[in-house]
Amino acid sequence: MAVDRQAVLAWLESLHRVYAENRDFLTELDSAIGDADHGINMDRGFSAVKAAMDADAPPGLGPVFQTVANVLIRTVGGAAGPLYGTFFLRAAAACGEQPELTPAGVVALFQAGVEGVRQRGKAEPGDKTMLDALVPAAAAMRQELNGNGSLEQILQAGAAAAEAGMLSTIPMQARKGRASYLGPRSVGHQDPGATSAWLLVRAAAAAWLGKTE
Ligand code: ADP
Ligand code: MG
């Protein structure tokens, strides 16, 4: 089973829907430890991605992800814009000229994207950011691949690890981003970016396993 351009476009379409549906939830999480715009930022970004794809989706996987990155960097703003932009820039590079992704290609895409976020944000797991969902997700995917797991097992392991990582941010004190200004008062709240990151991984699993969100 492989992930082709149509599957990638289905993922992007589903992200548009998921961030619209979770706009208020993400913004509520960001109102507790940030400036109450994360849901608005993500919804704006993926609405713009959908508009760009509807108007003129590029022919290959790499160019599709490159366009997503450009649109997100231009429209999302805040901390999340450049970080998710970098995720998709690295995803584009990981795809290169491949017309479709094998399970190994899917894992390489996520690992490259997550590494990009880590470098760009200079954060590490434990800092209460999106990396607390993304790093374990990529690691779980790699582990499934190394154990000869199917695409389904890889994606489900990634989504489960992202969810656990997201929940692990609740007791953390933020050390990066706006929430870090709160110091100990950031404890006891789920990180908005870790939550949007879980949605990103879960949507890939849903879109590529042929299930609807
Ligand atoms: P802003 O904080 O500028 O308002 P958003 O509200 O869109 O931007 O995004 C906030 C999220 O960005 C946080 O919940 C956190 O997960 C993530 N974030 C902030 N700084 C970093 C960083 N340096 N590295 C990784 N993620 C970060
Ligand atoms: Mg914010």
Write a brief caption for the model.
This protein has helices spanning 5-21, 23-33, 38-56, 61-75, 80-95, 103-121, 131-146, 151-168, 192-208, and strands at 3-4, 100-101.
Q: What is the chain-wise order of helices and strands?
A: EHHHHHEHHHH
Mean pLDDT: 96
Structural class: mainly alpha
The CATH superfamily bears the name DhaL domain
Task: Describe the model.
The protein has 213 residues and is mainly α. The chain has a single domain, classed as DhaL domain (Serine Threonine Protein Phosphatase 5, Tetratricopeptide repeat, Alpha Horseshoe). It contains nine helices and two strands. It has a two-stranded antiparallel sheet with strand order 1-2. Helix 1 runs antiparallel to helix 3 and helix 2 packs antiparallel against helix 9. The two termini are 20 Å apart. The protein binds adenosine-5'-diphosphate and magnesium ion. Magnesium ion binds next to loops. The site of magnesium ion has 7 residues, from loops.
